Amino acid sequence: MRRFHRLLGTILVLPLVLWIATGVLFHVKHRYDEAYEALAVPPESAPDWSRATVAPADVLATGLADAPLTLAAHPSGRLAYFGRRGAAPVAIDAETGAPIEPASDGVARRWLAAALARSPHAARYGEEIGAEEARETSARTGAEDPVLVVRTSGAKTVRIDRVTGEIRQSGELNSFIDATYAMHYLQWTPWPALNVALVLVAVPLVLLLAFTGARLALQKSAAVPATPRGGVGRAEG
Known about the structure:
By secondary structure, this protein is of the alpha+beta class. The chain is built from seven helices and seven strands.
C-alpha cells in the first residue's frame, strides 16, 4: 500500500500544488479590483432631466429609430434616446429630437481621458500605443456600434463606444486571472468533454490518496507499542 500511496502522490503532486496555489490567489484577490474595474465616462455637464421634453412616441413617429428606446445621459451631458434603426445604432437628443452623431477620434479619446482620470488605477494604463476600429454589441442600443479600441503601454485594451460612450477595459491581468480559474477547475484543454474526463479521473485519485494515507497512518500508530503509565519502569534485579 505504501508503494501505491507514493505513486498516487507522484501523479497528483502537481495538480494539488496548482489547486492550492490558485485557491490562495482567489482568496487574496490581488489586483482583482484593477482587473475588473468598471470605467464610466463622466458627462461633460450635469444632465437636466427636465429638458427631456421629446416623448419616445414622437421619436418613433419621425422614423429615426425603432422600438425599444433607452433614455440615458450622453457623455456630452445631453439626455438621449439610444436605440437602432434597422441594424444601425442611433442616439436621439431627448430635448430637440435631433440625431447625435457618433464621436470622432478626438472626442472618443477625450472621453477615455475623462474616464481614466477618475480611476484609482489610472497610472497602470500607461500611454496609448495603438488604436483600431471595431464594432461591438451595445447594451443601450442593442446594435453593433462603432467602437474605438485603444491599446496602452500598461497591457490594457480599452473600448469606447462612439454612440453611447459605454467604455470597457481588459488586459493581460484579466487573462492571467482567467487562466488561474481554468487551472484550478482542471479546464486544461480547449475540449470541455476532456476537461470533464480529467475531473472524473482526478476526484477518485484524490480520494484514494487520502484513504491510503489514512490507512498507513493508522497502521503506523497501531505498530507503536504503548508507553507504560508512570514512565520507564525499573529494571528488576
